[in-house]
């Protein structure tokens, strides 16, 4: 794409993820070389700051916490573990939490920090077919974890949080209700599932079958308090779907595009939730936007 910048990461094997922090000033990358690297981003320059070593297998994803919690970075790996790193001094990082070896029994494929309004909470998706939620309690200064009650057969590939504000809160005359804790997960069972936490207890809400193969990624759109909940999913079957929650309950599905024979690896939303980026097996990234009549069209670049 025009304006893109390439740089030498210094990793000795395939890079699996690269994420900018909240301000766009730090970049974290992770690789099959078992390391996480942190860079300072100044214009088009990337200055290497740190190598974070601790994983014993390929590192699949990295995720920055909101800056209100300090400089925190989470990473997940084939080694069944999540490591949470904290920058203690400029360029100096230490491990502040590692998930116990008994929490997950297979590769951890995806991690996602909850909206900062909910606190310091991390959702974790694993090939062992389960998801867990890690939460930091400031009063006790410790991390706790909770397993979701059953998830996806064969394995969980991705996890994403819903916006914390109830849908419609900004266009309703009523006082906004409490923040909501909801998740969507994707799995090797060709399904996506939504989950809700009420009074500290997680339960499955909906199971949606639309894909004919593994669902590789799922992303809940920011709604900014508008009266809708929207989820995007992309799969090994080359399909990208938009799922819209109906006011009477349940979800309706709409095809964005058929990328076959290429699989779809990642889907992600713009911060306003109106543009969807899709990364496919042809190494292409395309942008999509919904028209007034509800049709999704590619944005030409």
TrEMBL record:
InterPro entries hit by this protein: Apc4-like_WD40_dom, Sec13/Seh1_fam, WD40/YVTN_repeat-like_dom_sf, WD40_repeat_dom_sf, WD40_rpt
Principal subcellular localisation of the protein: nucleus
Compartments it resides in: Nucleus, Nuclear pore complex
Keyword Repeat included in the entry's annotation: yes
Domain Anaphase-promoting complex subunit 4-like WD40 residue range list: 92-161
Pfam families: ANAPC4_WD40, WD40
One GO location term (cellular component): COPII vesicle coat
Domain of life: Eukaryota
Protein's GO biological process: COPII-coated vesicle budding; mRNA transport; protein import into nucleus
Key words, A-Z: mRNA transport, Nuclear pore complex, Nucleus, Protein transport, Repeat, Translocation, Transport, WD repeat
Any GO MF annotation of the entry: structural molecule activity
Keyword Nucleus: yes
WD repeat feature ranges: 8-49, 52-86, 208-244
Recorded family membership: Belongs to the WD repeat SEC13 family.
Protein name: Anaphase-promoting complex subunit 4-like WD40 domain-containing protein
Organism: Chlamydomonas eustigma
């Amino acid at each position: 794409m025009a304006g893109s910048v390439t740089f030498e990461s210094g990793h000795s094997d395939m890079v699996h993820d690269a994420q900018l922090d909240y301000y766009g000033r730090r970049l974290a990358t992770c690789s099959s070389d078992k390391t996480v690297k942190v860079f300072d981003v100044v214009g088009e320059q990337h200055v290497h700051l740190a190598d974070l070593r601790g994983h014993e297998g390929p590192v699949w994803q990295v995720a920055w916490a909101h800056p209100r919690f300090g400089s925190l970075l989470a990473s997940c790996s084939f080694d069944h573990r999540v490591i949470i790193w904290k920058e203690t001094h400029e360029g100096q990082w230490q491990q502040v939490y590692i998930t116990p070896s008994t929490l997950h029994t297979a590769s951890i494929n995806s991690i996602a920090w909850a909206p900062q309004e909910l606190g310091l909470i991390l959702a974790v998706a694993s090939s062992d077919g389960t998801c867990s939620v890690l939460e930091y309690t400031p009063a006790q200064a410790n991390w706790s974890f909770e397993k979701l009650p059953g998830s996806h057969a064969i394995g969980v590939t991705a996890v994403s949080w819903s916006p914390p504000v109830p849908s419609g809160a900004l266009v309703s005359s009523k006082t906004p209700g409490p923040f909501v804790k909801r998740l969507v997960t994707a799995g090797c069972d060709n399904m996506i599932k939504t989950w809700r936490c009420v009074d500290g207890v997680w339960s499955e809400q909906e199971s949606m079958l639309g894909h004919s193969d593994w669902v590789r990624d799922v992303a809940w759109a920011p709604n900014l308090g508008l009266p809708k909940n929207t989820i995007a999913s992309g799969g090994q079957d080359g399909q990208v779907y938009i799922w819209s929650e109906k006011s009477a309950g349940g979800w309706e599905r709409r095809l964005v595009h058929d990328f076959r024979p290429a699989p779809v690896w990642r889907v992600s939303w713009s911060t306003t939730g109106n543009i969807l980026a899709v990364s496919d097996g042809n190494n292409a990234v395309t942008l999509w936007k919904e028209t007034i009549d509800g049709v999704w069209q590619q944005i030409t670049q």
